[in-house]
Amino acid sequence: MVIKVFLASSSGSTAIKKKQQDVLGFLEALKVDYAQLDIACNEDNRMWMRENVPVEKKPTNGIPLPPQIFNEESYCGDYETFFDAKEDNAVYAFLGLPPPPGSKKAPVKEEEAQEEVEDEEAKGEDDQPVSEEEEEAPEVTEEEEEEVTEVEEAEQEEEDE
């Protein structure tokens, strides 16, 4: 699988140039195989990119700006979605690639992660089911404990007399 990064070699926009450099630099750092496809010098690349970015991902003017990222023919996303994946440590999942050997954990789909959270919430802190009595019992502060102790001691003294 080859990652395709569509970019513009002669863009007049410094913002686009920085975004392109950020994507390419990060892919280099991860040692991901990728191909740079220039849309400024190659009309076929430009047309292919514009036709293959999903309609719901195109800006309001309908013309997607570089960089646009694909895994072969499959659309991965633009710079913003790449950046979000980078921030979430989910670049391999974003690119549709398996994580490298030795990585701590493969990316988890959002639904699976939610199920794990719900499963953990269903258990108590010590992984034991929580009884209804434990759930309903309010937390007792130190002050309240001291008051109860004083009242109990006073009642005990009255009984002793």
Summarize the helices and strands and which ones pair or pack.
Layout: E1 3-7, H1 14-29, E2 34-38, H2 43-52, E3 68-71, E4 74-78, H3 79-87, H4 91-95, H5 110-122, H6 132-136, H7 142-160
Parallel strand pairs: 1-2
Antiparallel strand pairs: 1-3, 3-4
Description:
This protein has 161 residues and is α+β, with helices and mostly antiparallel strands. The protein has 7 helices and 4 strands. It has helices at 14-29, 43-52, 79-87, 91-95, 110-122, 132-136, 142-160; strands at 3-7, 34-38, 68-71, 74-78. The chain has a 4-stranded mixed β-sheet with strand order 2-1-3-4, with helices on both faces. The longest helix is centred in the C-terminal third of the chain and has 19 residues, at 142-160.
What is this entry, summarized?
With 161 residues, the chain is α+β, with helices and mostly antiparallel strands. The protein has 7 helices and 4 strands; from the N terminus they run βαβαββααααα.
Unreliable spans: 106-110
Determine the structural class based on helices, strands and strand pairing: alpha+beta
Total beta strand runs: 4
- CA-to-CA gap between the ends? 89 Å
Order of helices and strands: EHEHEEHHHHH
Gyration radius over CA: 29 Å
Number of helices: 7
Helix content: 40-55%
Strands ordered across the widest β-sheet: 2-1-3-4
Biggest β-sheet strands, sense, barrel: 4 strands, mixed
Q: Would you tell me the overall average pLDDT?
A: 80
Q: Shape, please?
A: elongated
Content of β-strand: 5-15%
